[in-house]
């Protein structure tokens, strides 16, 4: 096995040898460094919010969000850590979207399904643009 699996690092764009973490060595080191910063700040400030953590450590909200979602910073341990709802940006602590957005999307999906069910089969619905 001499073939190297290489690809561009999604974080910095440099070519690197593919690995389980999907980023190059430099980025890995950087992320681990940022994680350590967050972790040591949270050890002393367990009730910090994401914003406080961000301004205290200089680590970006995006990266903190990834740590939370990866469970490297479990929200169970840190009661005020949140990240933004994918749909409206409201602070949430689990799933990808907040409860109201989840309900809205479910309602929309149901409505679509209903329309779909009422629609007589075999008509030229989709061909009309
Ligand atoms: Zn990189
Ligand atoms: Zn939302």
From TrEMBL:
Keywords linked to the UniProt accession: Cell projection, Cilium, Flagellum
Protein name: Flagellar protein
